[in-house]
Structures are given as C-alpha cells and as structure tokens.
C-alpha cells in the first residue's frame, strides 16, 4: 500500500517533533521544513497528501506556502496553524483556500480529525482533470442547469468539497441552497458521515438548546434518557443550518462558542465532548442587514460566512428553463412510473417568460400540478396556471394587447374563469371524487364545496 505523506512546515523544532510523532503514530510519513523556501524544495521532491504549515515563518507566512501549493500542486490540501485566539488569521487562510486550520496550542484531539479528513481526499494526481466535487458519488443530488451562473456554482461546490471551511449559501427560497449544501457534503471527505439538515426557523425557542446540544437524563422534567442533539448527530459529518438568521440571539452565542472551541456539552452534563462538524449555513434573507439591525451577531456572521456561495434565482438563468423542464418531467415520470409527458411550445414559451418567485421548487410544483391536470400527457399553457400579471421580459408586449393577460376580462371575471377551469380539471382528473379533487388542489373539502356553489358548478 502507498503510505500517505504529510509535509510539516514550522520553524519551531518542538512543534515539528510533536507533529512528526503524532503523524507517525497514525501511520503517515511526515517530512519537515522550517521555512517557505525549504517547503518549496520539499514539494519538488515528492507528492504530499497534506501540508500542515504554521502561519508565521522566518521568510514569509503560511499563506505564501498555501499560494505556492495552490498554483503548483493543485489539489493538495493545506491546513494552517494559527496563533492562539487569532480568528482573523484562520478566516483569512480559509478564504484563501486552506483546507482547515488548527489553533495553537496544538491539541492532538483536534489535529487527528483534520489529518484523517484530509487524507480521505483522493490523491492529487495531475492527470486527473475533474476535482472531487465534479465526480459526485451515486445518490448525490444534481444541481441541474448549464447556464454560466449554475456552472460557476457547480465549480465552486467542487472546490468547497475539498475544504472544511464554513460555507454560507445565499439565494432566494427554492433556488437550490440545500441541494448545493448536500452536494458539497457528498463531494467531501465527509461523504460517508451524516449530513444533518436543520431548519432553524422551525424549532420552538424553548426547545432549541436541547435540540442542538442534546441532554443528559434528568437534565429537566421529561428528560428520561440521554439524547443527542443535532451537533452530536452530525459528528464527523456536516451540519446544514437552514434559515440561520432565525436563530435567537441567545442561541447564536452558544453556537459561536461551539464553533470556536470545537467542543459541545449536553444540557445537564458536566463533561464536554470534542466536536468535528463542518457547518454550512443558508438563508434567503440579507444577513448583513440583520447584523446591522442588531438581530444577528457580527462575530457569528463572520465565522459562518467565511466563504459565500450564491445560488442564482431561476429568473436570472432563463436559458436553463428548457433543460430543467425536460429533466424534471423525466424525474416526475419516473417517480409516477408513467411515460414522460410532452410539453407544447406554448407552455414552454409561457414558462420562459414567467418570473418564478419560488424558483426551481415552484417550477417543480407547476409541472407536477400540470401533469395531474393535463390531457393526453401533453402540457399546454392552459395547464400551467401561471397567474402572474406581468411576465418577465416582453412586459410591454403583454400590456400592449390591452389585456394584461386577463383574456380581456375584468380581473374578477378572469379569476372566476380560471378557478372554474382548474376545479373542473381537478374533478375530471379524479373522476369527480370531490375529496380527491380538493386534495389535488391543496384546499379543504369544505372550501371546494363552497367554491362549487359559488361558481355554480354542478
Ligand atoms: N439547480 C437545481 N437543479 C435541480 N433541482 C433543483 C435545483 N434548484 C432547486 N432544485 C429543487 O428545488 C427544490 C428546492 O430546493 P432546495 O430545498 O435546495 O432550495 P432552498 O434554496 O434550500 O429553499 P429554501 O430557502 O426554501 O429552504 C428541491 O426539490 C430541489 O431538488
């Protein structure tokens, strides 16, 4: 077997010795260098699976080593050793592409997981063109789309998969933030470990602490056995904090501490546990505005938003719509065990003009509903029920025909007409089973009955 090799760059002999010793106990070859120049020389001699470098070196800094490796030895991960309490250095290194950082004084229990993770990354063979994130293992969610913006996001995901840096994903609701987070996890050295997704807005405030940190039996009334929290559940893996802006301030303080110390303590427990979790957070709100308004802690934002990944809104990438429609229809057909539906030109044109406030999720929903309501497995514009009055682009055209898309009817009559059509189709699709039709329409049985009366549908 090929032994893994690590290059240690530090000017302090004690630290080099400690690291060499620890790494050889882990069955890894460790070479050492005490300056940027020596590191460059060592790198010429052999291929390394990881470089651990101190930030302060006699002839430059750790970032110089990082840059040299990035330019010449592409995918070799670099972890930097930062001075005690120097958050800025750690963040700067992560932003510059470091795999992870290790704070001084070096603790073996924090060094090990970094080395283990880094060594799980595939060896950087120069002939290998695709990086780890670009060859997703089976079961990885695919971020569909070929527009430059989506390609850029995919490329970034590939890079982020090779690092342990916290990632902060922004984008509108339904734009694929969770898909992106999963793809980063699945492309990373943590792929075999858990991916735990938490919607921070959905947890009642009084349960938040025990949900995140877990608790010991007897910690409070009702705690009749030990329970792990999200943090322990994500151990060695990735914790995805969706709608992170919804975390209450008290929880933000606790989370910051966990991130800084890499330790967690259950509610009612006296001992702390080491924590090795990568955090990916997301929000569809503007977190910097929340910081300014005092609703989100600046220091936590700084730690979470080390690297930002922005997911484009669907209306920014209209060229992807035909491809998305095609692939989503194929997926929906497969799920239903039905033949793939055909889409008429009128429907495609309408979709291309639509604004998609709910992004890809909304497109999925529109197609799913249209499939249930269309005839002959062919989707036409009238099956889509796009209710927007001002479609994107060609706005003037829509207004020029004087109808604003209301078929020339007053708004009220137009809406009644649409409602009648949708309800009739739903009834036809369910063979006039009102309960099933109401379900299909996402309304209650009572509401359907009321509407049938109002519209005079028999
Ligand atoms: N580019 C894409 N390719 C394929 N599917 C996508 C894409 N973007 C979004 N989706 C799909 O849209 C739905 C919503 O995606 P996701 O949950 O990742 O969005 P989100 O940005 O996290 O939404 P929210 O802010 O509401 O949590 C999912 O079913 C997902 O599969």
Automatic annotation (TrEMBL):
MF terms per GO, please? Answer: ATP binding; sequence-specific DNA binding
Pfam families linked to this entry? AAA_lid_14 (PF25601), HTH_8 (PF02954), Response_reg (PF00072), Sigma54_activat (PF00158)
InterPro entries, alphabetized: AAA+_ATPase, AAA_lid_NorR, CheY-like_superfamily, Homeodomain-like_sf, HTH_Fis, P-loop_NTPase, Sig_transdc_resp-reg_receiver, Sigma_54_int
Domain Sigma-54 factor interaction as annotated: residue spans: 143-372
> At the top level of its lineage, which domain of life is listed?
Bacteria
Q: Which GO terms describe its biological process?
A: phosphorelay signal transduction system; regulation of DNA-templated transcription
Q: Which UniProt keywords apply?
A: ATP-binding, DNA-binding, Nucleotide-binding, Phosphoprotein, Transcription, Transcription regulation
What positions are modified (4-aspartylphosphate)?
54
Checking PROSITE patterns in the record gives:
RESPONSE_REGULATORY (PS50110), SIGMA54_INTERACT_2 (PS00676), SIGMA54_INTERACT_3 (PS00688), SIGMA54_INTERACT_4 (PS50045)
**Which residues does the UniProt record annotate as the domain Response regulatory?**
5-119
Q: Which CDD domains match?
A: AAA (cd00009)
Q: Which Gene3D superfamilies match?
A: 1.10.8.60, 3.40.50.2300, Homeodomain-like, P-loop containing nucleotide triphosphate hydrolases
- The protein in question is named Transcriptional regulatory protein ZraR
User: Which organism is this entry from?
Assistant: Usitatibacter rugosus
The lineage is:
Bacteria, Pseudomonadati, Pseudomonadota, Betaproteobacteria, Nitrosomonadales
């Amino acid at each position: 077997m090929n032994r893994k090799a690590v290059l240690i760059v530090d000017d302090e002999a004690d630290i080099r010795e400690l690291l060499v010793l620890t790494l050889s106990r882990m069955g890894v070859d460790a070479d050492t260098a005490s300056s940027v120049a020596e590191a460059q020389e060592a790198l010429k001699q052999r291929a390394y699976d990881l470089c651990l470098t101190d930030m302060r070196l006699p002839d430059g800094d750790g970032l110089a080593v990082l840059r040299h490796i990035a330019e010449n030895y592409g995918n070799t991960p670099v972890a930097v050793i930062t001075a005690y309490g120097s958050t800025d250095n750690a963040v700067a290194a992560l932003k510059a592409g470091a795999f992870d950082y290790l704070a001084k004084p070096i603790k073996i229990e924090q060094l090990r997981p970094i080395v283990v993770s880094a060594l799980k990354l595939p060896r950087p063979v120069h002939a290998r063109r695709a990086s780890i994130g670009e060859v997703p293992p089976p079961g990885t969610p695919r971020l569909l789309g070929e527009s430059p913006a989506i390609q850029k996001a995919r490329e970034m995901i590939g890079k982020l998969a090779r690092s342990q840096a916290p990632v902060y994903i922004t984008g509108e609701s339904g734009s694929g933030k969770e898909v992106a987070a999963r793809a980063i996890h699945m492309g990373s050295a943590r792929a075999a470990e858990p991916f735990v997704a938490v919607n921070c807005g959905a947890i009642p405030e009084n349960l938040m602490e025990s949900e995140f940190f877990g608790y010991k039996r007897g910690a409070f009334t009702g705690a009749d056995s030990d329970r792990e929290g999200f943090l322990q559940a994500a151990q060695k893996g990735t914790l995805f904090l969706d709608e992170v802006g919804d975390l209450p301030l008290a929880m933000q303080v606790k989370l910051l501490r966990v991130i800084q110390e890499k330790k967690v303590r259950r509610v009612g427990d006296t001992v702390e546990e080491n924590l090795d979790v990568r955090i990916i957070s997301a929000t569809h709100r503007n977190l910097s505005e929340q910081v300014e308004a005092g609703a989100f802690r600046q220091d936590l934002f700084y730690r979470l938003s080390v690297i930002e990944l922005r997911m484009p809104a669907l209306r920014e990438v209209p060229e992807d719509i035909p491809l998305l429609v095609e692939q989503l229809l194929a997926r929906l057909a497969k799920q239903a065990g039905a033949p793939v539906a055909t889409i008429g030109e009128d429907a495609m044109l309408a979709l291309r003009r639509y604004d998609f406030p709910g992004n890809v999720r909304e497109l999925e929903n529109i197609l799913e509903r249209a499939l249930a309501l269309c005839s002959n497995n062919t989707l036409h514009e009238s099956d889509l029920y796009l209710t927007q009055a001002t479609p994107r682009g060609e706005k003037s055209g829509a207004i020029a025909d004087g109808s604003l898309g209301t078929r020339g009817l007053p708004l009220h009559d137009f809406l009644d007409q649409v409602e009648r059509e949708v309800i009739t189709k739903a009834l036809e699709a369910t063979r006039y089973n009102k309960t099933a039709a109401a379900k299909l329409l996402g309304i209650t049985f009572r509401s359907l009955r009321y509407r049938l009366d109002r519209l005079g549908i028999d």
